[in-house]
TrEMBL record:
Database matches in InterPro entries: DUF3243 (IPR021637), Uncharacterised_YmfJ (IPR024702), YmfJ/YflH_sf (IPR038292)
A Pfam family of this chain: DUF3243
Listed name of the protein: DUF3243 domain-containing protein
Length: 85
């Protein structure tokens, strides 16, 4: 099963990557920018695998660039306390 198929696994995966980036000194502004780039990639290249991803994809598709950045920033906040570290 792909990490994208299970919402909790996806959040843990993102949380691990966030924790790793923060431990290496990557600033939050940079992380939020990267989150937007990941959102752009996922929206254009990856079919949503669960209901939560479908909602995010639908919101992303109607959002302005500023709203997409806000969604990406909220995802960073959502996963901040997730992960296995």
């Amino acid at each position: 099963m792909s990490v994208l198929e299970n919402w909790d696994q996806w959040k843990n995966f993102l949380g691990d990557r966030l924790n790793q980036a923060q431990s290496e000194g990557v600033e939050e502004e940079t992380i939020n920018g990267l989150a937007k780039q990941v959102g752009d990639y996922l929206a254009g290249q990856v079919d949503p695998k669960n209901e939560q991803e479908r909602v995010l994809a639908d919101l992303w598709s109607v959002a302005s660039p500023d709203e997409q950045q806000a969604i990406a920033s909220m995802m960073v906040k959502l996963v901040k306390n997730n992960g296995t570290h």
